[in-house]
Amino acid sequence: MAVKEAHRYSSEQPAAVLLQGVCFTYPDSSKPVFSDLSLQVPDGEFAAVIGPNGVGKSTLLRLITGFMRPQRGRVLLGETPVGQLSHQQRARRLAVVRQTRNDRFGFTVGQLVAMGRTPHKGRLGRPSSRDRQKVARALTLCNLRHLADRPITSLSGGERQRAAVAKALAQEPDILLLDEPTAHLDIHYQLEILDLVTRENRRRSTTVLVVLHDLNLASRYCSRLYLLGSTGLHHSGPPEEVLNRDNIAEVYGTDRLRVIEHPRTQRPVLIPDE
Fold first, then answer.
1. Which of 247, 273, 246, 248 shows the shortest CA–CA distance to 258?
2. Sign of the torsion formed by the C-alpha atoms of 175, 228, 220 and 14
3. What is d(CA 117, CA 115) in angstroms, rounded to the nearest whole number?
4. By Cβ atoms counted within 10 A, which residue in 155, 212, 216, 250 is the most buried?
5. Angle CA(220)–CA(42)–CA(88) in degrees, nearest 5?
């Protein structure tokens, strides 16, 4: 099936992330996750990867980080193949907020956020005044300064997620990857997390690529969507060109959703149909 591309990129448009002809299959599976995946995330974009369960959304992020390598094709950060970057070089270029985190250790919020500065430290690993400033800024942006001395294990789920985002922001990445950052959070924390990521996107032109299951949140916050289906990339483009009834029915296998236009933002909103 040919991929529907709402807007083609010009050859002069710089890419923060570029995948070219990527093929990937897990070692214990005979079914490929991606057979010939190509997509481009422009510098400064706030984009979302959407699609049903099992189509490779989290796998896509792992390929971008270099944690997994494709059997064929290329994954580039800017103009550099991710496999050619050292661990430290990658950590200076991109930060990841994962879907699941290990919060069992007794770090305080401040200690966790300070770990985001690790890629920028010198040989002795001592924090500089700049490191301390960036940690303080991240704590402030995420409204965590009053919790800096609290153990991570004592926080609510929403507060832990804010701490994970603060650690990523302290890292000062060019690219921020988030894997379902709103999962298991109530609506207050969902909006809070996406609002603060939006502010960072606008303040520093940080490229943001987020995996989201909630299509209305993706429509509300993101300027571009990558809709993955069982055969790879089904459609990409702005929300109003991706989130239509035909695409939803084909990829998600349901025609029980109606797409309307938000009266203020003019973005598409999906509601259950009768």
1. 273
2. positive
3. 5
4. 212
5. 110
Taking the C-alpha atoms of residue 227 and residue 233, their distance in angstroms, rounded to an integer, is: 6
Is 153 inside a domain boundary? no
Number of domains in the chain: 1
> Residue 263's domain spans which residues?
12-102+174-272
Q: Confirm if 46 and 221 have CB atoms less than 8 A apart.
A: yes
Position 82 in a domain: yes
Supply the mean pLDDT for the chain: 91
β-strands 15-24, 72-77: how paired? Answer: antiparallel
Residue 17 CA: distances (Å) to CA of 20, 54, 117, 174: 10, 22, 23, 10
pLDDT in tens, 28-60: 988 999 999 999 999 999 999 999 999 999 999
Tell me what pLDDT residue 126 has. Answer: 82
Say whether pLDDT at 18 is over 60.
Answer: yes
Instruction: Output the pTM of the full model.
Output: 0.92
Confidence of residue 5 (pLDDT cuts 50, 70, 90): very low
Task: Please state, in angstroms and rounded to a whole number, the distance separating the CA atoms of residues 43 and 17.
Answer: 8
* Sign of the torsion angle spanned by Cα atoms 188, 190, 196, 201: negative
- Residue 235's H or E segment, with its range, is strand 232-237
What CATH number is attached to the domain comprising 22? 3.40.50.300
DSSP string, 18-66: EEEEEEE--TT-SS-SEEEEEEEEETT-EEEEE-STTSSHHHHHHHHHT
Backbone torsions φ then ψ of 265, nearest 5 degrees: -90, -15
